[in-house]
């Protein structure tokens, strides 16, 4: 056990050193991509895809992390959609960049203050949110409506914050209100295995993490009478799919 902890500690040190050094270099690359593409890519689609590579690089180089993405073909390259995902870990952000499709994040405003990572979020014009602040929430909704009107999907965590026990928390209305108002589909995205990527407390990485992203079929909000009905339907879909994926992951080989 002590030997395993020592190996994890060593890998964690190398990982975080690589993270800091690579982020410095990759942010400079992001500035260059932003400058070159700004005249013809007003929505920042190319920069977002570059950011996807930046985030996925840490899966490519980390032998402890493995990622599988299914259903990516259900996501639009162009056209409005509201993507909603369950939220277990900070690692969810790295994992969801693995979708490699254009979208704008809705993220906590404090994340935009982070060196390098937060600066890149500003370049990408992701949408900041101060939780519990009515003015910020209204501004966030207007920002999301703007991007949806331009045919750019947005991605939100409808739980509002991370789940500490892996159970899907109650959903907030925002994503579903947007989908109904803008008459665009909701696309549920289910994450499993991400809780073991980046720990909430401490910097030592867990043992191997096998992450799975499942993109589910789009849900048409026009088929529902109101926001609460749509919200609970999508939450039920995510809970059921998460349980199915967890069951499959824990089943013995060949079962």
Radius of gyration: 18 Å
Number of DSSP-assigned strands = 7
CATH class: Alpha Beta
The SS-based structural class is alpha/beta
Second rung of CATH, namely the architecture:
3-Layer(aba) Sandwich
How would you describe the shape?
globular
Strand order of the largest sheet: 1-7-6-2-5-3-4
Number of domains: 1
Q: What's the end-to-end separation, in Å?
A: 30 Å
Order of helices and strands: HHEEHEHEHEHEEH
Quick one: biggest sheet?
7 strands, mixed
Low-pLDDT residue spans = none
Strand content: 5-15%
Number of helices: 7
The percent range for helix content is: 40-55%
Question: Mean of residue pLDDT?
Answer: 90
CATH topology call: Glycerol-3-phosphate (1)-acyltransferase
Can you put this structure into words, describing what you see?
By secondary structure, the chain is α/β, with parallel strands linked by helices. It has a single domain, classed as Glycerol-3-phosphate (1)-acyltransferase (3-Layer(aba) Sandwich), CATH 3.40.1130. Helix content is 45%, strand content 14%. The protein has 7 helices and 7 strands. The protein has a 7-stranded mixed beta sheet with strand order 1-7-6-2-5-3-4, with helices on both faces. The longest helix is centred in the first third of the chain and has 36 residues, at 2-37. The chain is globular. The chain starts with a helix and ends in a 5-residue tail after the last helix.
């Amino acid at each position: 056990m002590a030997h395993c902890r020592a190996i994890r500690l060593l890998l964690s040190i190398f990982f975080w050193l690589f993270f800091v050094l690579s982020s410095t270099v990759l942010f400079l690359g992001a500035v260059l991509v932003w400058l070159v593409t700004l005249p013809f890519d007003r929505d920042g689609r190319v920069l977002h895809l570059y950011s996807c590579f930046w985030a996925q690089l840490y899966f490519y180089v980390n032998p402890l992390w493995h990622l599988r993405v299914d259903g990516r073909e259900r996501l639009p390259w162009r056209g409005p959609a509201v993507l909603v995902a369950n939220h277990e870990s900070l690692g969810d952000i790295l994992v969801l960049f693995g979708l490699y499709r254009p979208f704008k994040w809705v993220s906590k405003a404090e994340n935009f203050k982070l060196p390098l990572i937060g600066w890149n979020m500003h370049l990408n014009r992701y949408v900041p949110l101060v939780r519990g602040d009515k003015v910020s929430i209204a501004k966030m909704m207007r920002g999301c409506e703007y991007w949806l009107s331009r045919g750019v999907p947005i991605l939100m965590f409808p739980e509002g914050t991370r789940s500490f026990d892996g159970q899907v928390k109650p959903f907030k209305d925002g994503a579903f209100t947007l989908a109904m108002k803008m008459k665009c589909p909701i696309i549920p995205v289910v994450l499993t295995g991400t809780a073991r990527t980046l720990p909430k407390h401490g910097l030592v990485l867990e043992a191997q993490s096998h992450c799975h992203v499942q993109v589910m079929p789009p849900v048409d909000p026009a088929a529902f009478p109101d926001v609460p009905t749509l919200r609970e339907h999508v939450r039920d879909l995510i809970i059921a799919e998460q349980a199915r994926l967890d069951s499959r992951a824990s089943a013995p080989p060949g079962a």
